[in-house]
Amino acid sequence: MNARRIVRSLFSIACAAIALGSLSQRVHAAASPSTARGSGPALIQLVAVQMSFDLDDYWSRDAFAAKIRRLMQQVAREIQPELPTLVVFPEDVGLMLVVQGMRERLQGVETIEEAIQRAVRAHLIPLAITKWRRKLSWVPAFYLYRHRAIAETYFEVFSQVAKEYGVYLVAGSAVLPPYRVQDGVVLWRQGPVEHRVYNTAYLFGPDGKVVGKQDKVYLIELEQEAALDLTSGDLDALRVFDTPLGRIGIAICLDAFQDDVIERLVAQGADILVQPSANPGPWSLDQQIDWLRSSHQKTFVEKRFAYAVNPMMNGPLWDIAFYGQSSIVARSPASLDSGEEAARLSYMHLVPTGGFLRVASSDQSEEVLVARVPHPASL
To answer: Cα–Cα distance between 144 and 165 in angstroms, integer?
Structure first.
């Protein structure tokens, strides 16, 4: 009798262990980003945040944080939180963090040139020293002089929202010098490792830590000697970043038009092309045709990437205005659930061109575009 009880007890324990193991496997499958849900391929989410410039969002850290959080709340309403997600903000999202604390001094300014002149006069002596010591012109000297205020807001705000919402996040770009990164933390308080400023995009993970960064290689006229006078990034320094969503390659705006940039990302096995952009000119028919040569052509026409995410900055910045329609592109949209809808999409003045999964409805608005797509590894 005792032997029978022992056998029954062992049998019960075994059944419980099997059931527990089965439950553990199901939980792990639900949590794993690379595991298929149901019988179909695993899904990921790609998000392009189309954002509008408003100087009121840049006078203080709190104002900027409120703006980014409002946009992330909109993202949260439209995504499925259990899916791995990549959120991409547009180029220059951090450009005007340089004006924090300068609202009164810049009140009534109508042009960027006037704004620069007032800002320089306000910090003339330290700026002159920085300019002379670092052999810089006035504008990059000003950004270098103000780098701590920019870095504190940029890194803390985007790190916090990436962690809070549990997403991978490309924080558009900001004008910053390079810093050391240790264990995913940017050591900006220790000062820059080089006294030059770049148009730089950072990729944050869902733990709030930095996965990597990318400097813009090809600068537009606004970023060159006659205006911002930024330093060009090094083509050989371009990297691709491994994530549970696939391998991410970042080409800031004009870089995504350049074959040598694209070839370098492709050679490193990039699955997803990220193109944060800010287009300082009217969204004309010619502009729209030309824009097809960037991430759309590289992904849909040339089949170099599985997906591309291209968020655009919009709105006026004193006497300069930015226009553009954000988009998400797929190499083979016809094979996805949205294939029929995608076949009808294009920029506002163009006939359907294929390739687009999502396109913003306007070139002068704030919008959040979300596409749920198969993991690149399953294609």
So the answer is: 31
The whole model's pTM is what? Answer: 0.88
Q: Give the up-direction half-sphere exposure of residue 225: CA atoms within 13 A in the CB hemisphere.
A: 0
Break the chain into its structural domains and give their ranges: 49-378
User: Residue 259 in contact with residue 48, Cβ under 8 Å?
Assistant: no
pLDDT (tens digit per residue) in 274-304: 999 999 999 999 999 999 999 999 999 999 9
The residue that leads in pLDDT, 122 or 201, is: 201
Residue-wise pLDDT tens digits, 45-84: 999 999 999 999 999 999 999 999 999 999 999 999 999 9
Answer yes or no: CATH 3.60.110.10 is held by domain 49-378: yes
Q: What are phi and psi of 153, to 5 degrees?
A: -70, -50
